[in-house]
Design brief:
Blueprint (H helix, E strand, L loop, with lengths): L33 E5 L2 E4 L18 E8 L7 E6 L4 E7 L2 E5 L14 E3 L2 E3 L6 E3 L5 E3 L8 E7 L2 E7 H6 L22 E4 L3 H12 L6 E4 L11 H4 L13 H6 L2 E4 L4 E5 L4 E4 L4 E3 L2 E4 L3 E3 L12 E2 L4 H11 L3 E5 L3 H10 L5 E6 L6 H4 L1 H12 L3 E5 L3 E7 L2 E7 L4 E3 L2 E4 L3 E3 L17 E2 L11 E3 L4 E5 L5 E3 L4 H15 L11 E6 L2 E7 L6 E7 L4 E8 L2 E8 L4 H10 L9 H9 L12
Parallel strand pairs: 13-14, 13-19, 14-15, 19-31, 21-28, 22-23, 22-28, 23-24, 30-32
Antiparallel strand pairs: 1-2, 3-12, 4-5, 5-6, 6-11, 7-8, 8-9, 9-10, 11-12, 16-17, 17-18, 20-29, 25-26, 26-27, 32-33, 34-35, 35-38, 36-37, 37-38
Subcellular location: Mitochondrion
Keywords: 2Fe-2S, Apoptosis, Electron transport, FAD, Flavoprotein, Iron, Iron-sulfur, Metal-binding, Mitochondrion, Oxidoreductase, Transport
InterPro entries: FAD-oxidoreductase/Apoptosis (IPR050446), FAD/NAD-bd_sf (IPR036188), FAD/NAD-binding_dom (IPR023753), FAD/NAD-linked_Rdtase_dimer_sf (IPR016156), Reductase_C (IPR028202), Rieske_2Fe-2S (IPR017941), Rieske_2Fe-2S_sf (IPR036922)
Length: 601
């Protein structure tokens, strides 16, 4: 499908400026509809963007005002969830000033009052998204929307909040965006910005461009048949239908003139002539390019790999089909990866049996360490998941073309009606091999802190890249996780507009199994020790991952919001030493965040 919005006649104001460079021209040679400058930086804009009203509450019937507390009820650095009668708000006091914003994280609805307040922003306790308390804007991810911001006034020592009833109900705010000036000026085979891939990185890039006032043509293309969706739910909530997990509805793409080409695969990129060549022969010129193609799951290489009912979970249809086939049947999962373990957890109550085959001795050993891995393994075993460790699949046997048995190299034969493969993935960058874009020995696209490749005007983001991680002294790393893909997309978009922004986010991820979640922040690759606080047997713990004397990552279960607190410390550029872990753990459990400002002793 090609979503092409209806052409509209619009009036625009163009402020004259000096001769523009070729980089500011559309690929068809026509001037890009810029032009005004903010702080010396050229921005795209046009008048159809909704103006900022001087009175945001233009409908008096939609407004509620309530006294919520006395001015002395909150100390600096405190947050309180307050009820306005028709909805709740988060009241915050920082540096002597009161702020009021939405009380739920727009991502999955986490209560922000249980999050972390630090230096003008609040961080979600579940998945680490950050919001500016003054504007409500989202500053770190996951999620796409910011928080609604409410008016606060002080009268006679009482704090009043004035809010839109609608905002109190929705608890989210989509930032204003520009639209395309007029698609009638464009040749269908040319675009200003082409985004290859429609995951989190691609969508955030497109949205950020529109939020910054970019009003030229944007085209996204994807091999998928669906518009961008919440991919982590494919293994965490497997029976979700595509429309239930869509990141944005179809109307959003039409409204903001973001065109999406579905079921379209790019076969090659001609860097010199700025042309993307699709598998069906269609060619599209571009001015700026974002490559956000993600990963391709690895397949099994054993005998019988082509039999029916063997799946890589890549699409909502894959996940739905596995749930249907697995119900009251025998399931074998190959690979104790995040995907493999989440699928095992989801199917454990639905299938007759769930067996998990893994080459390592313990699940998650390389990522969470042996002790945490064993605790997780024990939780799975108590939920009827059977592990076959330190072995591999040697053969898949069929009956009438469909899977019947999985044969292991250990000699064990497992009954199997369906098999899910989760043995890792490789970057989907094969189409770039002859392009001139710098690819490392593992197939990852190499980018700098601004998500730029070695080719001017070509950016890359998401699971398919290696980038310098500030947290680890700018070591080039690959972080194939949802939050990071969002941030990559935003940084790439801002640098397409010459903002000069460098990535500096702290990686943050989570996994959900049997109603419990492990949160994780940092980058623990190469850790040499794990310091455990809490009780692994009770699944209430915090694990600090250290390299030499420094904490490089933290994971927790049932200890929210400690991972978000550590993420804020790392984001502030403060080091946590191994010798201080006992003290830091106690310090964070008290809720005291003075560590961030250096006031803690």
């Amino acid at each position: 499908f090609l979503f092409v919005p209806a052409v509209e006649v619009k009036i625009e104001v163009v402020i004259p400026e000096k001769e523009r460079s070729k980089e500011e021209m559309s690929p068809n040679g026509k001037a890009s509809p810029l032009i005004y400058k903010v702080n010396g930086t050229a921005r795209h804009y046009h008048l159809e963007e909704h103006p900022i009203a001087s009175n945001p509450y233009h409908n008096p019937k939609d407004v509620v005002e309530a006294s919520v507390c006395h001015v002395k009820d909150l100390e600096n650095g405190q947050m309180r969830e307050v009820d306005l009668g028709c909805g709740k708000a988060l009241l915050i006091k920082e540096s002597g000033e009161f702020h009021a914003v939405g009380h739920k994280c727009p991502h999955y609805g986490a209560p922000l009052v249980k999050g972390v307040l630090s230096k003008g922003r609040v961080r979600c306790p579940w998945h680490g998204a950050c919001f500016n308390i003054g504007t409500g804007d989202i500053e770190d991810f996951p999620g796409l929307d910011g928080l609604p911001r409410f008016q606060v006034k002080i009268e006679k020592e009482k704090v009043y909040i004035r809010a839109s009833k609608q905002a109190l109900q929705t608890q989210r705010r989509t930032k204003m965006m520009a639209k395309c000036i007029s698609l009638s000026n464009y040749n269908l085979s040319s675009t200003n910005v082409l985004i290859i891939g429609a995951g989190a990185a691609g969508l955030v890039c497109a949205e950020t461009l529109r939020q910054e006032g970019f009003s030229d043509r944007i085209v996204m293309c994807t091999m998928d048949r669906h518009l961008p969706y919440d991919r982590p739910k494919l293994s965490k909530s497997m029976d979700s239908h595509p429309e239930q997990i869509a990141l944005r509805p179809k109307e959003f793409f039409r409204t903001y003139d973001i065109e999406v080409l579905t079921e379209m695969q790019v076969a090659a990129v001609d860097i010199k002539n700025k042309i993307a060549v699709f598998k069906d022969g269609f060619k599209m010129e571009y001015n700026k390019l974002l490559i956000a193609t993600g990963n391709t799951p690895k397949a099994l290489s054993c005998k019988g790999k082509e039999v029916e009912n063997v799946f890589n979970i890549r699409t909502p249809e894959d996940a739905n089909r596995v749930v249907k086939l697995a119900t009251s049947k025998n399931v074998v999962i190959v690979g104790a990866s995040f995907l493999g373990m989440e699928v095992a957890a989801y199917l454990a109550e639905r299938a007759h049996s769930v067996s998990l085959v893994e080459l390592e001795e313990v699940p998650f050993k390389k990522f969470f360490g042996e002790r945490v891995g064993r605790a997780v393994m024990k939780m799975f075993e108590s939920n009827r998941v059977k592990f076959y460790m330190q072995t591999e699949v040697s053969e898949l046997r069929e009956q009438e073309g469909k899977l019947k048995e999985v044969v292991l190299k250990s000699g064990k034969v497992l009954r199997a009606d369906v098999c899910v493969v989760g043995v890792g993935a490789v970057p989907a960058t094969g189409f770039l091999k002859q392009s001139g874009v710098n690819i490392d020995s593992k197939g990852f696209i190499v980018v700098n802190k601004m998500m730029q490749t070695n080719i001017p005007g070509v950016f890359a983001a998401g699971d398919a890249v290696t980038f310098p991680l500030a947290l680890r002294n700018n070591k080039k790393v690959n972080v194939p996780h949802w939050q990071m893909a969002h941030m990559h997309g935003r940084v790439a978009a801002l640098n397409m507009l010459a903002h000069g922004m460098e990535i500096s986010t702290v990686p943050y991820l989570w996994t959900a199994m049997f109603g419990k979640s492990i949160r994780y922040a940092g980058h623990g690759e190469g850790f040499d020790d794990v310091v455990i606080q809490g009780d692994l047997d009770e699944l209430k713990f915090v694990a600090f991952y250290t390299k030499s004397d420094e904490v490089v990552a933290v994971a927790s279960m049932n200890y929210d919001p400690i991972v978000s607190k550590v993420a804020e410390v790392l984001a502030a550029g403060r080091a946590i030493r191994k010798r201080d872990v006992d003290f830091i753990f106690l310090f964070f459990r008290t809720g005291d965040m003075s560590w961030l400002t250096g006031k803690g002793s």
